[in-house]
Queue: 3 jobs
Job 1
Amino acid sequence: MEKIILEKDIEVAYVQATSFPDGIMAAFSELYRRVGKEHREFMAISRPENGQIVYRAAVVAVPGVPEDMPRWTVRKGEYISEMVYDFMKAPQQIGATYGKLLAHPDIDPQGYCLERYPNEQDIQCMVPLKAS
């Protein structure tokens, strides 16, 4: 685990999964259909809402991303983070990694789970920490 700092807020556009975890791949497929896959920075945001996990497949909102897509702001600040390498070989690693991150004593109780995809094989799992 390592602490990292996001220096500025990041606006993302997203497609919300119809269910978690079953709807994740369909949400990403729809996102790729809407924005393409080339030269994009992909993320995902998940958090409990009304007793269920809501999952949003997201892309950094830069020119060329459709304006009609819903938006979310990834907050700047300090995050606890861990990489999961080659996640498709053992997708359960993602849940186990978030289990460790969410056990950290300083997480923001109003936070969320954030995934950043540096490439198609790896995920950077992140959870915001309380502002100091």
Job 2
Amino acid sequence: MADVNIDAGSATPWGAAANFALGLIDRLIPDKAEADKQKLAVLGLVQNGQLAAIQAAAAVDQAQAATNTAQAQSRSFWTSGARPAILWICALALAYDTMGQPLLSWVMGALKHWPPAPPLDMGSVMTLLVGMLGLSTQRTIERINGVIPPGK
């Protein structure tokens, strides 16, 4: 156990701290059995810290899902209509960027020799659209694990 190193987690605060602690244990505790015992304790603390972070993130996700459900079920247009309005804005921006702007620029150039239509900053629009549609790895993982039933 003298050469234990948490390379996979060294990019996290827990992994870096554990690697530092394990190095200190090797230097400060000459008894191999006691050093191994202390190293196991450090590794247990790392595992508990990572588990607590995962549980906290899951709690935040569950709270957000409950908020989204409550907003979608609201009878008020200003509450339940916000998400569809943002999605329609994103859809219109995507339609303009992919079809409208090129066609409009072509028509303006061919008929009147006017300057081309301006493009949109699609980076922010696509970030919002992809996030709202849930096109992320998390949804794929949920489908694989059976959290989201097939066809939904």
Job 3
Amino acid sequence: MTYEEWEVGVPEEITADPLWKIKAYRLSLFLWDLAWSDATRLMQDRRTIQLSDQLYRAVGSISSNISEGYSRSTGKDRARFYEFGLGSARESRNWYYGSKKVLGQPVVSHRMVVLSEIIRLMLTMIPQQRQLQRIVKLQAIR
């Protein structure tokens, strides 16, 4: 499934939320949907049952932390949750790398491309939130 095909099926309750404007959030939800079938395939091999659980949890944690961070009132708090999401994205990348013998290189490569984009976006979002916090502090001093 492509991102465009997936996006058409996302319910309005999600797409109408201002959080939907954050590309890293959209990509992480897309990846989470893809991870369902990936985890299902991994569960069919006894050697990767635990990997499937770790992978699915890590991928789900990305969008969860972005959404929780987005809901925080300060840049400092938002940055902290975005950092958790960044950690989960990097963890997911490792789990996908370890699953290549079951999922196959084309699937793993696709997932790693999506994860790399999420990581790149989050590496921009985190400093922006920290900078926002500094600006708020400076304005409070004046």
